[in-house]
Design a protein that fits this description.
The complex is a heterodimer of chains A (about 130) and B (about 280). Chain A has about 130 residues and is α+β, with helices and mostly antiparallel strands. Chain A has a single domain, classed as Heat Shock Protein 90 (2-Layer Sandwich), CATH 3.30.565. Chain A has a 5-stranded antiparallel beta sheet with strand order 1-2-3-5-4, covered by helices on one side. The longest helix of chain A is centred in the N-terminal third of the chain and has 22 residues. Chain A is globular, with a radius of gyration of 14 Å. The two termini of chain A are about 20 Å apart. In chain A, about 40% of the residues are buried. Chain B is of the alpha/beta class. Chain B folds into 2 domains: about 140 residues, Globins (Globin-like, Orthogonal Bundle), CATH 1.10.490.10; about 110 residues, Transcription Regulator spoIIAA, CATH 3.30.750. Chain B has 11 helices and 5 strands, in the order H-H-H-H-H-H-H-E-E-H-E-H-E-H-E-H. In chain B, helix 9 links the parallel strand 3 and strand 4. Chain B is rod-shaped. Chain B starts with a helix and ends in an 11-residue tail after the last helix. The chains are: A alpha+beta (about 130), B alpha/beta (about 280). Chains A and B meet through helix 1, helix 2 and helix 4 of A and helix 9 and helix 10 of B.
Amino acid sequence: MNLRSSVDIISEWDIVAARQLGRNEAKDVGFGTVDQARITTAISELARNIYLYAEKGNIEIKQISEGNLKGLLVIASDKGPGIADVRKAMEDGYTTSGGLGAGLPGVKRLMDDFKIETVVDEGTVITATKWMR
Amino acid sequence: MDKQIATYIQANIDKILEKWKVRMEDDQDDRFFQIMSDQVIDTTVREFGELMISSLTASEETYDEKLKDFSVQIVRYGWSVTFVLRALTNFTEVIYEEMEEAGLLTESNYKSFREILTNWITPLNHSVVDAYSKVWEKTVNLQKIALQELSASLIPVFDKISVMPLVGTIDTERAKLIMENLLQGVVKHRAEVVLLDITGVPVVDTMVAHHIIQAADAVRLVGAKCMLVGIRPEIAQTIVTLGINLTDFTTTSTLQRGMEQALALTNRAIIEVNVK
């Protein structure tokens, strides 16, 4: 099974669309309410980062499976400014926008696998996976 | 040339409409023609034909007026904009074909003919799209206002205690509104404790949490205490995982428990009375 769907993030309301899609997909895979909330929140953070820093980008959500394990893969990609210091961005409390600075490290904790690929001035691709247990 | 086209359409309107209808039926899944009664289709199409003729014969002002009325009417029928635009294209194509068959369209006058038709169809397309987008804009605006009205009202429940129930997604604009209403309400109702109820907020991410923390801080500055109530179990877990620090203010799972604590804070309690 390889279902994929995506939402373009252009305005603040697209964040809502992205997480709605995430919630539906998570429900579809069979995640419980707590994991649904985790996935939706993670998508919300990623989408908001796109909206805040890159202005536009895309959130792609894929249902994946590995053997008996089912899961949901979230890919957040943008062609924004990139992240200059990834190590710092992953620190709790570090922020360049006056927020709480819990977004990226939070997403990493909310999901099971987490990967950032970023090039300054070229963009960022973040992939995060949640497996169903 | 204008006149020629107009008279031709006028004379052959039935034939053109028949052909147009066949084309539309081929083009569209039959659903559309099943939903609409024959009469509605017929009158609308006839009106449309007249409109096209008047655009070539009548003065510009009358035409503009008629065009506007027609667009508004079409929007009211609730037809999809794609369908209407396709109908317009098909109509023009039918006229081309028919006039070519009738021998009125030759190679020598083809260019001027095309110019006339383009000048004629383009404003029509624009007007239809314009009418549609106006209706959409209006709807969106109305909904925005409706949303704002439901957005964030502070309800004085008891003396010194107010509640702000939050329902739905919190975006930047709404967060600003929450802050304003909260502070204004606290001062107006002389509240000492404010309960922010987030039972109806679907997702609490760092942005929402940040706004709540800021609002609570501001409430503290005007001399009241802010409590966060209605934290569902799954929200509690995500807040902890995100690493958001909410230790600075009192939080409870339900509004009811929050209310009990708020009453205790203001040295009051709800007691049961025995009525004979």
